[in-house]
Each structure stands twice: as structure tokens, then as C-alpha cells.
Amino acid sequence: MTIEGAEPGTVRPGGRTARVRAAVLRAAGDALAEQGFAHLDLADVARRADVGKTTVYRRWGTVTGLVADLLLDMAEQSLPRTRTGSLLGDLRANARLVQRTLTDPRQGPLFKAVIAAATCDERTAGALRRFYRTRIEEWAPCVREAVERGEVPEGTDPHEVIRAVSAPLYYRLLASNDPVDEATADRAAEAAAIAARAGAYVN
Where along the sequence lies the DNA-binding region (predicted)? Predict the structure, then answer.
């Protein structure tokens, strides 16, 4: 049974199918982190997951279909947002979550590989956009709550504030290769909070 319009691998399964999906996605993440997108191979992923090649090819079809499902799973498994009662506290929690993800021995290289793939593959780029849209939507309410508390002006764009928190961290990961540490995460959160209070993100 298939769902009309669903991408390969994106229908949420149960039972044995769920276990197969989990094993394959874990193997795909490991392979991406180790070898990058250019060397990702469905047969190798099947071998790593101890799953039949036919199952992987039938379910995901292509490498990009597998990466799209991996990003969907990562968005679903990501930790829920933290509520601290202040905008700065919430943004600092967000920044530290991003920082921990980007410096994780597995997740950091995996993100680098997926972002690199997205620059030359539109399907991967679309999946990456959906991933970040999901994460931004998860954290946007902390800005709306700050508006309600009077911490930031009416009309502040929640999405722009959340983007401003993580952008410096991704720049360090992908461009400057400077350390992505907690102090950097805290500075990014503080800068975004100060700018938001000053009305920099009012539409």
C-alpha cells in the first residue's frame, strides 16, 4: 500500500518495516558521515544495515530518496524546544542544541555531507529545506511568547530571529572552520536577542 504523492521512504511504517527503516537510516547516516554524499551507495548501505539490496532499492529507489528520508527522520527525532521563560534563555538553549549537533562526531560530518550534496542536487536541497523549516517552526513560538511578554516589539519575525541564532554557527562549520563551542553559541544567542529587542527583525 502506498500513499499518493509520498516520496519513497517517507511513509511512516510499523513493526518489522519500522525496524528495517531504522537500520537503513542509521547505516546511511554512518556512511554519509564517513564517506560523504559522493560515495553513498545503496548496496553498501544495505550491507551495513544487514538488509537485502532489493528491499533498499524498492523502498528508497535512489540515493537522494534515501537522504530525503534520513533528513525527515532527523527532524522528527530532534529534541523538542526548551522553555526557560525568557527570550535570551530560549535562544541560548537553541544555540547550544545546534552547537552540540554540529560538533557531534557523527552528526557534524553528516550535516556537512548533506549540505554539500544539497548544493548540486535539487531533491536533497528540498529535503534539507524541509528539515530546517521543521526545526525553525519548532522554535519560533519562543519569539512569539517574548512578544506577548513585551520583551520584543510587536511584528518581530520569529523565523528571522531563530535563523539569526544558528547562522553564525553554520558559518563556522562550513566556511571559516573556527571552533563551534558553547561560548560561540551563547554569543550568537545574545546577539540575536539584542537585535530582536532593538526591533531589527520587525517586518
Answer: 41-60
Query: What's the CA gap between 4 and 177, in Å, rounded?
Result: 43
The answer to whether 185 touches 99, Cβ cutoff 8 Å, is: yes
The amino acid at residue 25 is L
Q: Which residue has the cell 512569539?
A: 144
The full length of the chain comes to 203
CATH 3.40.50.720: does it fit domain 81-197? no
This prediction's pTM: 0.80
One pLDDT digit (tens) per residue for the chain, 203 residues:
222 233 444 444 457 788 999 999 999 989 988 888 888 999 999 999 999 999 999 999 888 889 888 888 887 777 678 899 999 999 999 999 999 999 988 888 888 888 888 888 888 898 899 889 989 999 999 999 999 999 999 999 999 999 999 999 999 999 999 999 999 999 999 999 999 999 999 99
- CATH number for region 15-74: 1.10.10.60
